[in-house]
Design the sequence.
């Protein structure tokens, strides 16, 4: 009886306690694989439901519309006992770094086939018992350094179809217990074997479905992968074209090569100074190591004035060239050529000199001569211009003079006698007196040549003298008579024979320049005779020439001398 009573009590308590299996619709709660499971698939949830029992160990939210998992998304609704979370195909786009915080017994997470573009490296920190993580089908594209926190019990990581293009060599460095890694159906072209050096327990590595570029960058990983016995499916080359669709194991390691690439420094055109030095070079990469050579205008360089230096690295080298004492012969096109088993490529560098505008130059000594020559030529041209101008003016003046002069006439006997007296003269340098030489004196080599010219004056200046009133020039006006004396320069002739027509008492020692002109007296003189205006010592105007009768003229009072009159002459000189 006591036993029956105890059983009835236990049944009453069980019916009185809340049942975890009474899940709010549309979720369905059940036992599954020994776990309390809440199945809420395709239930239309937009966030984690908050009316589930905290004893739930498994939560399946697949097929819902939960776009974001916020901070402490599960802890905030009391689901701290979760061991497995399924959120595949839920439209998830963002996962907070602390979304799974304090879920210390979490062993499995499925976030596959969502729209997660990036995963914070702090995500899953503290979930140290996590063993399986599925991120398939998310457009992650890149796995950065230390992408995952320390997860010492993680055994399986799947990243299939995540559009991965780059995996950092330290992305999985904290996943030392990883046994299975799947990276298939991504966009990986190459990987470094260093990515997997920390996996002591890795048994499965799935890499098929990637567009592998079988070149020198993949060679190291290819050699490691084939020797690790991890591949279950053979991998195929996609690039380069010569290796397309070939299996890795069927392509020798040395054919995983990179063609040479050439870069010039500092630029494709180098300008140098004439007589200076210049250096330029090319940066070459390639694997196997390329052989590098320089060409000048298409021909190998073998000149001693060129120095070629190489700085070699693991898969690259610098090859520099130096040209000393640059001249026009060094300008042109230089070509850096790199060759290996795959290809031969070249790149040109043009060496140029700056354009120089040339001009004719002369030395200092020659420059002086040139300048003096230019000065002389300039002076000569100036003189020629002045001479031409003077000649033109003279011609015009003579033309006007000829127009003003009357027809030439002959002198009368009285005029001839007067001229005979005036033409030949001599000078007594001691007394300053002059005497007539007489027409009988004839010199074989006369030292003096005298030219007499008459210059007419306007009628308004002087009326014709009375003596010429009945001559052939009754209306002509006469001015002064100019006597031009030309002294011979012959050194053999005695200088004392040359008359000094300007030997005046008040003058200093005369300086002879070879020509002399009697000064004209511009003063107006009212006295006239056959020599024109003159004044005798006695104020008389009597004409006393040989063979002629004296003519008495009225003597008007003399006018005051003008301020501009020439110096007074001696009576003898005036008588001339």
Sequence:
């Amino acid at each position: 009886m006591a036993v029956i009573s105890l059983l009835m009590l236990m049944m009453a308590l069980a019916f009185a306690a809340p049942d975890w299996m009474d899940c709010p619709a549309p979720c369905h709660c059940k036992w599954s694989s020994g776990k309390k499971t809440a199945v809420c698939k395709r239930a239309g949830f937009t966030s984690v439901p908050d009316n589930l029992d905290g004893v739930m160990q498994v939560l399946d939210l697949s097929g819902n519309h939960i776009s974001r998992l916020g901070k402490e998304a599960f802890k905030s609704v009391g689901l701290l006992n979760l061991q497995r979370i399924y959120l595949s195909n839920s439209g998830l786009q963002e996962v907070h770094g602390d979304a799974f915080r304090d879920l210390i017994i979490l062993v499995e997470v499925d976030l596959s086939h969502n729209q997660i573009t990036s995963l914070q490296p702090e995500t899953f920190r503290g979930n140290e018992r996590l063993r399986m993580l599925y991120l398939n089908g998310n457009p992650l594209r890149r796995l950065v350094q230390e992408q995952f926190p320390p997860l010492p019990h993680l055994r399986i990581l799947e990243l299939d179809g995540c559009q991965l293009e780059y995996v950092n060599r330290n992305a999985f460095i904290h996943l030392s217990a990883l046994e299975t890694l799947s990276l298939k159906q991504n966009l990986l072209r190459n990987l470094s074997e260093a990515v997997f050096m920390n996996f002591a327990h890795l048994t499965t590595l799935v890499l098929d479905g990637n567009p592998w570029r079988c070149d020198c960058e993949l060679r190291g990983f290819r050699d490691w992968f084939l020797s690790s016995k991890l591949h279950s499916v053979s991998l195929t080359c996609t690039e380069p074209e010569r290796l397309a669709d070939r299996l890795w194991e069927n392509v020798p390691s040395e054919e995983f090569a990179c063609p040479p690439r050439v870069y010039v420094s500092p630029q494709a055109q180098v300008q140098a100074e004439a007589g200076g030095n210049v250096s330029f070079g090319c940066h070459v990469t390639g694997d196997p190591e390329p052989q590098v050579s320089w060409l000048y205008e298409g021909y190998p360089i073998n000149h001693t004035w060129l120095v070629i230096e190489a700085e070699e690295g693991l898969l690259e080298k610098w090859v520099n060239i130096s040209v000393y004492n640059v001249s026009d012969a060094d300008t042109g096109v230089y070509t850096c050529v790199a060759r290996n088993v795959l290809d031969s490529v070249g790149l040109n560098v043009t060496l140029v000199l700056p354009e120089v505008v040339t001009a004719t130059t002369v030395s200092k000594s020659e420059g002086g001569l040139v300048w003096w020559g230019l000065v002389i030529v300039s002076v000569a041209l100036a003189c020629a211009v002045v001479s031409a101008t003077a000649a033109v003016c003279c011609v015009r003046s003579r033309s006007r003079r000829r127009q003003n002069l009357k027809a030439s006439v002959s002198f009368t006997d009285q005029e001839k006698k007067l001229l005979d007296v005036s033409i030949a003269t001599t000078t007594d340098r001691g007394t300053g007196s002059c005497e007539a030489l007489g027409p009988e004196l004839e010199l074989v080599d006369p030292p003096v040549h005298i030219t007499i010219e008459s210059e007419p004056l306007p009628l308004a200046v002087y009326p014709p003298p009375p003596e010429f009133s009945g001559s052939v020039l009754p209306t002509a006006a006469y001015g002064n008579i100019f006597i031009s004396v030309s002294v011979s320069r012959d050194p053999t002739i005695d200088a004392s024979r040359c008359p000094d027509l300007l030997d005046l008492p008040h003058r200093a020692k005369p300086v002879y320049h070879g020509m002399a002109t009697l000064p004209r007296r511009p003063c107006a003189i009212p006295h006239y005779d056959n020599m024109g205006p003159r004044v005798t010592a006695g104020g008389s105007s009597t004409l006393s020439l040989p063979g002629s009768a004296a003519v008495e003229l009225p003597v008007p009072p003399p006018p005051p001398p003008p301020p501009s009159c020439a110096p007074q002459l001696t009576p003898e000189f005036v008588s001339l």
About this structure: Residues 191 and 221 are 6 Å apart (CA to CA). The mean pLDDT is 74. DSSP finds five helices and 29 strands in the chain. The helical segments are 2-16, 216-228, 364-404, 413-423, 571-575.
